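hi! just following up on the protien thing from before. the input was this:
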Amino acid sequence: MSALKIKKGSNKHSAYNLRPTFSDVEEQHTLAVIVDNEAGVLARVIGLFSGRGYNIDSLTVAEIDHEGHRSRITIVTTGTPQVIEQIKTQLGRIIPVHEVHDLTVEGHSVERELALMKVEGAGDKRVEALRLADIFRANVVDSTLDSFVFEITGTSEKIDAFADLMRPLGLMDIARTGVAALPRGL
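and the predicted 3d structure came back as:
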């Protein structure tokens, strides 16, 4: 027994419980990284992921401050909590990185993605494609006698659901922007 009369042991209430509390459950996180808008910055960020074997599910980059020469890189990635923490720490060490925000843990955020889908269709399939587009609030941005190009904006899940319904109707091609995200509130 120690001088403080605290017993060592494996009791879950013990101050000396040194059993690892690692989680092996993979979670999807959305990271917003504010960087200098200069050549090579994106390559450094991507190099961090590829060099350590981390996968990027979605990636968008755009300049957000023209005068300050800053860009926002929005990355959706999947990993255990320890891997996500390691990614955030390592991103913060890259020289042109100013801020790293984990929008998944910082509170509610708004996430949207844009997709263009080319769907062939004639007759009943054409009518059904237009009906489903109306339900999903997709816009027709191009139309020929043989096909449509739909524009749809929403969460990744909404876009996946729309694509799944368009496949049997003749989904020919799809282009997606990747997730753009901002935190809600102040």
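The helical segments are 41-52, 81-93, 124-135, 156-166.
The CA atoms of residues 78 and 170 lie 31 Å apart.
cheers
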